[in-house]
Amino acid sequence: MLGLGDSSYAKFCQAGKDFDTRLAALGAERLTSRVDSDVDYDTSAERWIDDAIEALKPLNQVATSQASGTGTAASLMDSFTLAALAGGMGAAATAESRYSRKTPFVAPVLENITLSGRGSSKEVHHLELSLEGSGLTYEPGDALGVVVKNDAPLVDDLIDTLVLDPLATITTHNSTLSLRDAFLNAYDITTLSRAFLEKYAALAESAELRTLLSAGNEAALRDYLYGRDVLDVVRQFPARKLKSAEFVGTLRTLQPRLYSIASSLAANPEAVHITVGAVRYDSHGRARRGVASTYLADIARTGASVPVYIEANRHFKLPQDAHAPVIMIGPGTGIAPFRAFMEERQALDAPGKNWLFFGDRHFRTDFLYQREWQRYVKDGALTKIDLAFSRDTEDKVYVQHRLREQGKAVYEWLQEGAHLYVCGDAEHMARDVHTALIDVIAQHGGLSQEAAAEYVKTLQREKRYQRDVY
Where is the FAD-binding FR-type domain (predicted)? Predict the structure, then answer.
C-alpha cells in the first residue's frame, strides 16, 4: 500500500492506512510494508515501486509458468507486465518536452498586469510568460507549475532567530547549497504541521510543545497551527546549540505551485497566461505573504524569468464535440481556465453555445477580464453571462444563487448535451454549487433528490460535469 498525502493535515494518508488495515483484516498479505508519502513523494514513491516490483517478480514467474500460453492467465499477465509498471512513471513526460517539474523551463515574463481596480480589497494579477524555444505545449484545462522561492526577508529573520551561519553548507537532493540558499529555494518555512512540531519539539526540548502535541489537545493544536509559520515557533520555543543540519531535517521540501492556465496555445503561440491572486494578511502580530502569489506579483516583473513546467489535467477538458454547449462556473480567480476555454473555442470556430457564471465582491473593481467578456457577448461568442457581486447588494449573492435563478435554462442546456465546469474554492463554493445543481435538476426535471443526485453522477461518469477545485 502506497499512501499519498500532506502531513500538514491531521489525517495524513488516512485513506491508505484504512485500506491497508481493512485488507489485512480480510486476509490479504502485504508484499511490502505500507509507505505514507508526503507532498515531496518522488523518492519514497519510487522506492516503494521498486520494492513492489521485486516482490511481484516471483509471482510473475509462477503465473507465467502455470499459464503455459493457455490463454486467460497469460493474457492477464500480458496486460499488466512488470516492465510496464517499471517504465510507466515519467514515460509520457519525456515524450513532449525535456522540461518537467524536476527540470523546469526558465520562462521570461512578458506582462504582469494588475486586474483589480483601484480601491479593491483584492490584488489580482494577469501574467504572460514566454515559452519560446521550450517545446512545451498545453491544452485548456491544464495547469502551469511554478517553481517558487521563499521571501528573502523571512529567510533572513529565520536564520537570525536560529543564530545559524547563513553560509553553512547543506546537502539536499544531491545538491550542496548554503543554508540561506536552501531556505530560499529548497525548504518550506511557511507551512506549519504536526510533523514539524513533533520533530522540532525534540530539538527544543520544550515541555509546552510536547503538551500541545499530546492526546486530547487536538483543538488547541489546530488553533496554534492556523496563521503561524516556522519563524513563530522558533521565536516562541528557542532551541539551544542547534545545528543547521538538525533543523533542516525538520522541514519539508518547498513544493511548486499550480495555477490554472488562462490562455489557449492556439490563440497565443509559444506563450502561457495565468491569473494570480496575491495573498497578503496580518496574523499574530506579523504581516504574512503567500509564498507563490506574492513571489509572482512582486518579483515577476517584465524582464524577469520564472521556472515553470506544464501539469496536464485530463479531468478538465473541453468536449471533443465542438457543437456541444458549455456552462462555466468560476468566481474570482476561478475564471482563469474559462478564459482559456473561450480563446480556444474562438480560435477553432467552435459553433457550440457558451454560458459563463462569474462572481466576486464588487462589479466596479473585481470584474476580472471585464472587457474581454463584454466583447465576447457583443460578438455573440458568449451566449449567456450571469454575474454575482456579493458586496454590491444588501443580501450577499453568489454564483450558486444565480445557478438556482437560471435553473430552468441550465436544465434545458444539460438536456441538450451541455458540459458543465466548475473552478475555484472547494470548501464552500464548489460544494454549494454542487448542491444547487442537484436541486435545480430535481425541480426542473421533476425528479426526486435521489434521482437528481444520480443524474449528476451520470454527468460525471460521462465527463460532462468536471471540476477543478482547490
Answer: 102-319
Four-CA torsion 385, 390, 391, 394, nearest 10 degrees: 110
Which parts of the chain register pLDDT below 70?
Answer: 7-10, 39-40, 42-43, 59-97, 300-302
Cell of 405: 435563478
Q: What is the DSSP letter of 129?
A: E
> d(Cα 48, Cα 35) in Å, to the nearest integer?
7
Q: Based on the domain organization, do 134 and 272 belong to the same domain?
A: yes
Provide the domain limits for residue 141.
105-148+255-311
462 assigned to some structural domain = yes
* 229: Cβ contacts below 8 Å, ≥ 6 apart: 154, 189, 190, 191, 192, 288
Name, in order, each residue with C-beta under 8 angstroms of 164's C-beta and a sequence gap of 6 or more. Answer: 179, 242, 244, 247
| Whole-angstrom distance, CA of residue 342 vs CA of residue 372 | 10
Query: Which of 425, 403, 398, 411 lies closest to 456, judged by CA?
Result: 411
Instruction: Give φ, ψ of 17 to 5 degrees.
Output: -65, -45
User: Is 363 found in the same domain as 440?
Assistant: yes
Spatial distance between the Cα atoms of 260 and 257, rounded to a whole number of angstroms: 10
Least Cα distance to 309 among 57, 47, 104, 25 occurs for 104
Query: Going by C-beta distance under 8 Å and a sequence separation of 6 or more, which residues neighbour residue 152?
Result: 184
Task: Tell me the residue length of the chain.
Answer: 470
- pLDDT of 8 reads 56
Residue with cell 475564471: 335
Domain identity same for 137 and 158: no
**What pLDDT digit, counting tens, does each position of 323-375 carry?**
999 999 999 999 999 999 999 999 999 999 999 999 999 999 999 999 999 99
- Any domain includes 97: no
- 358/434 same-domain check: yes
Q: Are residues 270 and 339 in the same domain?
A: no
| 235 plus 307 within the same structural domain | no
- Give a yes or no: residue 86 inside a domain: no
Same domain, 291 and 350: no
Q: Where are the beta strands (DSSP E) in 74-194?
A: 105-114, 124-130, 143-146, 169-172, 175-178, 187-188
**Which residues contact residue 101 at a Cβ distance below 8 angstroms, ignoring those fewer than 6 apart?**
145, 256, 309, 311
The pLDDT of residue 82 is 41
DSSP 146: E
